[in-house]
Amino acid sequence: MGYFDMLFAPAKKKLKQFLADDVGAGDRTSALLPEKKCRAIITANENCVLAGAEEAAWLFSFQGCRVKQLKKDGAILRKGSKVLKLDGVNRKILSAERTSLNVLGRMSGVATICSKAATIAGENTKVFLTRKTMPGFNEFDKKACTFGGVFPHRKNLEEMILLKENHLAFGSIQELIAKAREKKRKGEKIEVEVRTAGQAVEAAKNNADIVMLDNFSMKSTGKAIRKVKEINQKAVVELSGGITLKNLHSYVKLKPEMISMGQLTKEAKTIDFSLEVVA
């Protein structure tokens, strides 16, 4: 396998576009420099879980640089850890600097907050990243979360059937689950998002594979989980809405199989990385 075989064509295409958006018609500042070969090092300026090193490395490789990845994605970094060593033409390295650091910083930020969530949740409850991501960066956020021990929910709308509140405005839970069973692919799960205990009971009675309790209070969550399991022991219960790192442990104690957290993308802090020309 080649060095970047884990990066599929769609990801490479997006990375090229990110770079093109930043460079525009040309890097006028770097064009002022005499063209010289040089070496640069990318360093983490704070503690984090690393993600996006493969993407950053590919961007510099695309620019014609020789790249050595000093740390692998998923590594726990301390401030000052060196991540990438680059050898190439100065203009090419400097033109890709900001795009690469932005991707690296965002993905590492997602991986870092996800690692905190996964540690709190432990082994019996799986934490999932939602689709609340920036358009164009969805697959990178979803990849980053895995390095933090969190699972991606649907990558896109094609991946599974999830009946949400606004879908239920156009049909009953019973009716829409029946339609979903007619259309579903082999092995595909049917999930129903519910806002009340009554809806949770209806979803369980109609054999939804996953019942998502959305924005339930702590007290009502425990009761709803018990009702769902009494009706359909095989149904998987997912909790979502208003769950944060601060209250995650309390929800985990209720023993749901899944918890999805919008906070993991909405509040991911961009990690600070820097590039320095060293030779």
TrEMBL record:
It holds the Pfam family QRPTase_N. It comes from the Archaea. GO terms for cellular component: cytoplasm. Pathway: Cofactor biosynthesis; NAD(+) biosynthesis; nicotinate D-ribonucleotide from quinolinate: step 1/1. The keyword Glycosyltransferase applies. GO terms for biological process: NAD+ biosynthetic process; quinolinate catabolic process. Its EC number is 2.4.2.19. Residues 29-108 form the Quinolinate phosphoribosyl transferase N-terminal domain. It is an enzyme of class 2 (transferase). Residues 110-276 form the Quinolinate phosphoribosyl transferase C-terminal domain. Keywords: Glycosyltransferase, Pyridine nucleotide biosynthesis, Transferase. One of its GO terms (molecular function) is nicotinate-nucleotide diphosphorylase (carboxylating) activity. It catalyses: nicotinate beta-D-ribonucleotide + CO2 + diphosphate = quinolinate + 5-phospho-alpha-D-ribose 1-diphosphate + 2 H(+). Hexamer formed by 3 homodimers. Belongs to the NadC/ModD family. Involved in the catabolism of quinolinic acid (QA). This is Nicotinate-nucleotide pyrophosphorylase [carboxylating]. It comes from Candidatus Iainarchaeum sp. The gene is nadC.
